[in-house]
Amino acid sequence: MASYYKKLKxxxxxxxxxxxxxxxxxxxxxxxVYGARPFAAFRAAHWIxxxxxxxxxxxxxxxxxxxxxxxxxxxxxxAFLLLFAGVGEAAVRLDGKPAAAVPLEMVxxxxxxLGIGLYAQLFNLSGDPVKPYLVWAAxxxxxxxxxxxxxxxxxxSALLFFTLYSGTLSSNSILALTAARLADAQPxxxxxxxxxxxxxxTAVFPGRKLSLPLGASxxxxxxxLLADTAIKIRSSALILLxxxxxxxxxxxxxxxxxxxxxxxxxxxxxxxxxxTTFFWHYKGxxxxxxxxxxxxxxxxxxxxxxxxxxxxxxxxxxxxxxxxARDELAGKVLLTASMLCSFLLFDANEATAKAVxxxxxxxxxxxxxxxxxxxxRDSDEKQINLGVAVLTILAVTRFIDIFGxxxxxxxxxxxxxxxxxALAYFVxxxxxxLIESVKK
Amino acid sequence: xxxxxxxxxxxxxxxxxxxxxxxxxxxLFASRNTDSPEFYLATEPVxxxxxxxxxxxxxxxxxxxxxxxNCPRRTRDLGRLFVKLEDKGKKAVTAAGExxxxxxxxxxxxxxxxxxxxxxxxxxxxxxxxxxxxxxxFYLNENDPRKDARSGSVLAKVKIDRNRSLVLLDLVEKF
Lengths: 440, 175
Description:
Chain A has helices at 2-17, 23-35, 44-65, 73-93, 98-123, 131-146, 151-169, 188-204, 211-226, 236-253, 264-276, 296-315, 325-340, 350-377, 381-400, 406-439. In chain A, 38% of the residues are buried. Chain A contains 16 helices and no strands. By secondary structure, chain A is mainly α. The mean pLDDT of chain A is 82. Helix content of chain B is 17%, strand content 45%. Chain B contains two helices and ten strands. In chain B, strands 1, 2, 3, 8, 9 and 10 form a six-stranded antiparallel β-sheet that branches. In chain B, strands 5-4-6-7 form a four-stranded antiparallel β-sheet, with no helix packed on it.
């Protein structure tokens, strides 16, 4: 990302030097773009302040946790309430002075869990391990949302997602969604609470960049589909369909149009397609089918995800390849094909699974090739490198994970190598033609 | 109106947070001071640590697997349960002399309005279903020798509050 700003600055300076824009305009454009980057308002001093607040908060928590049993409960509680009010009031009063406000806000954020820990110690409270975290998040969220700095909001969002993952994957908590052994399914209101926590974690996340919370939500939903929950799915076809649909949804909705790259969502999609190439070794569903069949709710969720992903791919701009009308169709075709190939696994057998694996290999090969061509056309070195990396990883994997006989694989590798050579020749030829056209 | 950084809104939030802890603390104090008899329970402690609350003794109780009366039938289902605790003649010797150790004598989903019924939650653990009472942790100073208490060497001093919840008051060494 830093290289993007460096390149932007160089391009703007070059444009100013060529007389296309004035140096003032170049500086204004750069300041505007640079100021809008994530954590823009965080100078080094703010980070140090945040670290200071974190250390102080953790230190106070440990001192309280050491249990000063010579001091009576009422005195401890009164001191805690006084400290709580003092820290909060100081953070409000010193809001305009970041060097003091940032550490104070950090300590304020941790005050609720300090209080919960203290009360548990004083009254020997035990029970549901998820409840304290939910109460902490509920108490801290309003202040995090009202703060003019995003630090508490980031922490609060992370806390909510941590609680969501740990709570829903346990079987004995207020958020539990996985069934305890030999027990009934978890009650429906656990789902309502889990979805509320999910919505909270996404809503509290500061700024308009939703890629990270959306990614965390997508991964959570996929884990819920795989775990022993009321929406569990067990057939390879539905698992692949929902996984690919979720990856496509994240890729389509997880980044703003002005973002230059899809980032983590793109890597997740590539990873999902890469894993699909291993369906070559598929020997039937007996390994995944042991813990019962698909649930009706799980099947419905998988089909809804597919419908949503398909509509999104058709009607939203694709983010698989760099934005631009030329690659729009290629990106949409690749995304759609990655979802549709899972249909081959319905009533799966070894032949259809091999067809899925071959499709996935072709998808990655096509992505790599289109990336190289697109990167050459737009002089985007990173895009070319990505394409080459995908093709190389694919080739190396297939070398280790031999598809057919050694003779056939050897031939295939020689053909791939020659294709690479031809591609490099045409890429270079295209680059020279571009330079010539600029010279003329 | 710009809510971000608004001092009055932030003070309102701070007030609500402090009020929450003041009210909760008051309620916990009131629960602990309920006018009900105190009694003892046999324990099986282990000693982990909590990062937010400090060193504690994790307690399992004999009443975690209640066996008397309807208990074997009632404890098959997970969820809310009430357990009748009673002195059946079992005794232990502490620094304060000989004390009765209460036992679980019956279980019910909707118990009669009489003293001695404690609220429990049946949950699934590795060894099967167990009854938890919210008294499974006793917090200690990190240098307190009771944190190394061996199984069966301590008693939990408890009482039942007005909400039928057990309140853990002390961990007493047996002689």
